[in-house]
């Protein structure tokens, strides 16, 4: 049986195992493939996981290991190298190759959210591996962006600096941070929601809960909002194609 899985520090929020279990049943693969959640307290534990799981053919990577996994890989796909973050690893002939399938999910999600809307600029909330993938896709689309971080050294703005002028010159707001993710569903990034308008578009990469507080507070201001479930499905299918391509 081929084994796949997801590595991360805490995985109670993850829908990935359920998604792949349903996929395997639907496609008649439930006797041939399995997908498990592997909680690793430190990234160094990935070496033991691979050694102890000889049937492991690939795995996804989530917070906080999308950048930390890179030194443990033998090769990187060109896009993963350009982004500097990996969320999908293929194991073949003893070699580990890193890919980034987040970009597939981000592209599909932005197509759905924006349609034909012209965007002046985007605010990207967060600086981790998912943020790197978002920045890559925005650059491909020629959408200027600014990074928002709690640490003034890591971004263009801190959350306290998001005033009226900033909000009215950035009509796309993308949350790449884990704020609001299950079980902390009563939390949301600290942006000035009262300054949002029907011309604003909010994309939350968080998919659990399906309707995040970030998206709900945006919708209350008549902003367009989309959460991360569509992205999850698209990147999962892209990972499957990589593992079996």
Describe it for me?
There is one protein chain. The protein has 245 residues and is an alpha/beta fold. The protein has 8 helices and 11 strands. It has helices at residues 16-26, 45-52, 78-83, 102-114, 129-140, 164-168, 213-219, 229-244, and strands at 2-8, 33-39, 56-61, 75-76, 88-92, 95-99, 122-125, 145-148, 172-175, 201-204, 224-226. The strands form 2 sheets. It has a 6-stranded mixed β-sheet with strand order 2-1-3-5-6-4, with helices on both faces. Helix 7 links the parallel strand 10 and strand 11 (224-226). Helix 4 (102-114) packs across helix 5 (129-140). The longest helix is centred in the C-terminal third of the chain and has 16 residues, at 229-244. The protein is globular.
| Strand-residue proportion | 15-25%
Number of strands: 11
Largest sheet: 6 strands, mixed
Helix percent band = 25-40%
Mean pLDDT across the residues is 97
Helix count, per DSSP?
8
What is Rg?
Answer: 18 Å
Strand numbers in spatial order across the main sheet: 2-1-3-5-6-4
The topology string of helices and strands comes to EHEHEEHEEHEHEHEEHEH
Name the structural class.
alpha/beta
Low-confidence stretches: none
